Amino acid sequence: xxxxxxxxxxxxxxxxxxMISPAVATAAPDTGSLGGGQCAEISAENQPNGWGNTAxxxxxxxxxxxxxxxxxxxxSLELKTDAQNPRKASYHSAGRVKFSEIVDTPxxxxxxxxNANWQIRSTGADxxxxxxxxxFVWSANAEAAGERNATNxxxxxxxxxxGEDLPRGTRGTLQELSAAxxxxxxxxDYGISSQxxxxxxxxxxxxxxxxxxxxxxxxxxxxxxxxxxxxxLPF
Length: 235
Description:
With 235 residues, the protein is mainly beta. It is 9% helix and 33% strand. Strands 1, 2, 3, 5, 8, 11 and 12 form a 7-stranded mixed sheet that branches. Strands 4-10-6-7-9 form a 5-stranded antiparallel sheet.
């Protein structure tokens, strides 16, 4: 495989997610296939529907639900950091879908405020260690409310070395990262994190689209049980 010319410094790259370790809004958002019918159409304070953070090394880092809106009017997921809590992240199970199957699908979220990062937590990658854990990361920094589309971006990077040709922190497309990670790479969890370089920041996130499933974050879910997920692990 050819070597990549675009390499970010590891120190800069790890600023967004070095602490990672194994472990337009509508009333009717898009739904789709996610690990055998695990699509959470809505996630709210009274109905998280599988969203949260139970990673042992990330206790207390889950986002909270807010009345602040991004582009719709029912609230959002809030990731608020400060000097004592420099990182926040919320995830949902991806059902161990093949990483190669999601690299050409829409990867979109809406946000308002500071730093927000895609986090695609995977195992089985060619990292040369353990269970092949790696997180694929893409970052957005924007104050105005809008859509962040990482689908065709060449600014994705991995938190581990992949194969012999892709050092961690190297920027590239998901197709390039997938080729380096290998065919056995599966996605365990996906989500959004915030880890700004400054002492504190607040970002609001909504309508996260992964593998054909869009989750609308709201302060309170409708009483009808819309988008409920029984018997699904809480992250």
